[in-house]
Design a protein that fits this description.
- The structure is a single chain.
- This protein has a domain of 45 residues.
- Helix content is 63%, strand content 0%.
- It has 3 helices and no strands.
- The chain starts with a helix and ends in a 5-residue tail after the last helix.
Length: 83
């Protein structure tokens, strides 16, 4: 009997609060934007070289955004916000 009362009175403890989820979605947005910027630049014909694959957007900006997104994700998981 005592165990059933204890189970009824306990509330689930959530690890994350709404601010954690907000930061997770921000990080996910950075990662998605990085992958979107990295896409494209290929050629339909394999015999024709397209120098657009070496664009500064695909070489520097997109991977930087992805790394920033992963950093924000780590921050969102490890940061303990007050309820």
């Amino acid at each position: 009997m005592g165990e059933q009362k204890r189970k009824k009175n306990t509330k689930p403890i959530f690890i994350f609060v709404s601010q954690n989820y907000k930061w997770m979605f921000i990080g996910l947005g950075f990662i998605a934007l990085g992958f979107i910027l990295m896409a494209g630049g290929g050629s339909d014909d394999p015999n024709i070289f397209n120098p657009e694959i070496f664009n500064i957007q695909r070489i520097r900006v997109a991977p930087t955004l992805i790394l920033i997104g992963f950093g924000v994700q780590v921050f969102a998981i490890l940061k303990k916000f007050k309820k």
